[in-house]
Each structure stands twice: as C-alpha cells, then as structure tokens.
Amino acid sequence: MNHDEEYPADYLAGILKEVKTIAMVGASSDPAKFSYGVLRVLHETGYDMIPVNPSEAGSEIRGLKCHESLSSIDRPVDMVEVFRTSEAAYDVTVEAIEIGAKVVWMQIGVSNDEAARLAEAAGLKVVMNRCPKIELFRPFWKPRLNQVI
To answer: What is the predicted pLDDT for the residue at 139?
Structure first.
C-alpha cells in the first residue's frame, strides 16, 4: 500500500470494525496528553484498551493496568497503536509482529516506511500519520457508542 496517498475509507473503517483489543504504546496517565484523550475515547467507545509505557508499568491508566512492553501483555492484541516517535515505530513494529498483532497504527505525526514494509511483509495492515479517534467519527462509520464498556 502507498502510505503517501489517502487511505481508502473502507480500509480504515474495516480496521476499526474488526479490531477489539488495542495496545497503545506510549499511553500516558496525564489527562492533558493527547494519548490519554485518545485512549479514553477508544475505551469509552468499547475497545479493550491496553496501555503500554515502561515508565508507568504496574500502575493504572483510567483503571487499566499499564504494561512495560508489548511482550508483557498476557492476552491477544489485535492492533498496536504507536504513540512514540517515527524512529521508535520500527522497534514497536517488530514487537507487534512478535506478539501476533494484526494491525500497526501510527498516530498523527508518526511515519516509518521501513516499519510499514516490515509489517506488511509479515501480513499486518498498516496505517501511518492518522488518529483512530478522529477516524471513528468520519461519516463512513458511526462509533459504537452503544457497546457495554
């Protein structure tokens, strides 16, 4: 896929409809941080969110246990959301492949072509430089606000 072009609406909507469990690498307990707001909305929308941040491991973010790394998560993960630098996205992608994730989603401002090629070669779907919170509210798909949290 050419990640320099606009993603087809059905590609993004398909991912957001299919995934259930999302590990957010770079999650923060600080309500002023963008990652906290994205985690909050995705969680309230019905996704099973798993915060990942080594400096907050063992604590909770919004009542959710924070993990040190993707490999420390004890259940399957559908999507890994990358709230780290573009450079760090490669190592996160390697871990995402190792844990059997189906999607690597890099947050707005995060792009790594080498990571995208690696993930796609391993059979994962990739989204770069986009926010799932924003995509949830686009006209092509209505959020699942009626789901039990």
So the answer is: 57
